[in-house]
Amino acid sequence: MDMRLPTETPALLLGLIGEGIGQSLSPALYEEEAAQHGILCLYQRIDLDELRLTPAALPELLTAAERFGFKGLNITHPCKQAIIPHLHALSDEARAIGAVNTVVLHEGRRIGHNTDHYGFAQNIRQHMGDGPIGRVVQLGAGGAGAAVADAILRLGAGHLALFDQAPARAQALAQALQARFPHASIAAGGDLAQAMRAADGLVNATPVGMHKHPGTPLDPDLLEPRHWFAEIIYFPLETELLRIARQKGCRTVDGIGMVVHQAARAFELYTDGIPADAHRMTARVMRILERRAATAGT
């Protein structure tokens, strides 16, 4: 008689830290993808708004996550840069970009990674192929913006114009990028209307357009049918600016691909190399969004 106990199901405890993340699709993405690999995953939203906390609470939250046995944490607005001083190590990508969206907790160490740049690049390639993306205007120079700008330049943009509500932040990012991409032309601030007239494409890397930050990050009249437009927000799936861009006939890229591909890469980090199925994750996201839209319409 075989007296061996049955093998325990592998378990994975993960979380997301950020503001206004009640509509995040991350729990479903990670839990259902893990189940496909025979892993029991529990994914918790750690919403600073609901907890009435600010990024100043990050040290306490990290300590609590370690004590509860979390394997990793996703990091979103406004913590992608604020988290860095509280980590023990950074991946090469996270160090170069200066922002972290994925933290692996392992044997008492906190290791920061950035999968946003990969997710954005994959999304652009899927929608626009390998053709030139030309001259780009990017709105937003924060944590997500730093990763997106890195991806844009790696995709071959010849010129990148950065704009941010904090001009000094845009200037600092432009200088850091220029040092890493000396053959590109990178500028910060200036005349946004003039930059749009010279641009081939526009990227919104600000939180403007989210449910918590409604509106558009620039005057929609500056967007012309010849422009392509990429959005990194995915809830709502169609921001006001994305809707306007489509109505004008612009070539558009929504935020779904970025969130799926960055999550797929993070899943591999959390599971020590188990590959995630991005196509399966995309289908899952679309089903959830369709259900939400149907519920909202009833």
UniProtKB/TrEMBL annotation:
Keywords: Amino-acid biosynthesis, Aromatic amino acid biosynthesis, NADP, Oxidoreductase. Pathway: Metabolic intermediate biosynthesis; chorismate biosynthesis; chorismate from D-erythrose 4-phosphate and phosphoenolpyruvate: step 4/7. It comes from the Bacteria. NADP(+) binds at residues 92, 140-144, 232, 255. Pfam families: SDH_C, Shikimate_dh_N. Residues 255-286 form the SDH C-terminal domain. Shikimate binds at residues 24-26, 76, 101, 116, 234, 262. This is Shikimate dehydrogenase (NADP(+)).
